[in-house]
Amino acid sequence: MSNPETTDFVIEGHGDISVGVHGAGASGDGSASATRITPGNALRPEDIALEISRGKVKPSEDVAEYALRIGDDGLILAQRLGHWISRAPELEEDIALGNIALDQLGHARSFLTYAGAAWGKSEDDLAYFRREHEFRSAHLFEQPNGDFAVTIARQFIVSYYQFELYTALSASTDPTLAAISAKAVKEVDYHRDHSAQWVLRLAGGTDESRKRIIQGFKLVWPYVDEIFEDDELTARLAEAGVAVQPSSLRAEFDRLTGEIMAEAELEIPGVPQSLGGGRRGKHSEFLGYILAEMQVLAREHPGASW
Amino acid sequence: MAPHGNPEAPGSAASEINREAPKVAATTEEHQESPWSLWEVFVRSSRGLSHVHAGSLHAPDAAMALRNARDLYTRRNEGVSIWVVPAEAISSSDPDSKGSFFESPQGKDYRHATYYTKSEGVKHL
């Protein structure tokens, strides 16, 4: 990543987005409707793939492995959250969870596209044609949705962790990681707000909702320590300024989640922590089922397009 | 458990989830006791324009109504500002009194600037 030309991504190639509205996007148009739609400009996985194909971007083995971890976290969580579509308690919440899932999928696509450049693989190769032990996601992300409160408890932990992570990575010396993270952090900031709002409402709602959010936190809290675990890879990357040690994010995570938990009059569950191992490809029994569902179509019909 | 079984009911640890926390969607009788109220959503598409009615949604309170509006009505860069208003706070004109309410201005072309001829020597008109 020594080439200074790679520090700015050229956002281009948006021509393939069909907005479906003739003449849409004329700002200042007095007759502009409230539903005017524009694709907007933001870093997309396609932009990263383009830079890769031009040979401008290629991660080192370490950076690729690191991007794989973060990408897998988002991918597995997106698959989990996607299961809520048509099943959420209200239509509006259905869409909110779907939006969060798609945000996570977007981050995953960018990270996996970038990681794949080290091994000549595409995002789809990595998502659909790796086996369970080759996934690097932490256990928290593959935990079952449970009821709505369990999903919110998991999302609360994830979004506060990801906000700290992406904030830190926005200053990475690796320009691609920094660019992906700078876009992701704004979306994750909204996920924080969404889950915090629900934690407060469930905790302060009815006896039933309070019971469920307490139970939800009890079920997912054992997976918190793993996401803040350092290892040799993060140590090397932190040394180089590419990444940060996950443990360095813990204090701020504890402080901010602690504020919401205190406001909700909830206690941090005193539950033992799981052994983890997701970063080394050791997963809980849940991941295999997620992968079976996620990968079946691509594996049954390799190369299919539609 | 079937290999392609429901990941919501995994092989182990699920007993706890299923016993203590049934799916929210299954508790419809509770849900119907207090349905979320209706909110009207107004979106301003860009600086300098007015907020325009975009649609309506359900939400438990104003804070969540704003967030739901963000998710429902600004998914494609439609807005820079959102208002939400409780639907019950809006008073509307009676569709049956269209005649007395809206037909009176018809034919009153003196209410339009184009009715008047420009006076000589007036600048900047």
UniProtKB/TrEMBL annotation, chain B:
Keywords: Oxidoreductase. Residues 1-34 are annotated as: Disordered. Pfam families: PaaB (PF06243). The keyword Repressor does not apply. Its EC number is 1.14.13.149. GO terms for molecular function: phenylacetyl-CoA 1,2-epoxidase activity. InterPro entries: PaaB (IPR009359), PaaB_sf (IPR038693). It is an enzyme of class 1 (oxidoreductase). Residues 17-33 have a biased composition (Basic and acidic residues). This is 1,2-phenylacetyl-CoA epoxidase subunit B. It comes from Paenarthrobacter nitroguajacolicus (Arthrobacter nitroguajacolicus).
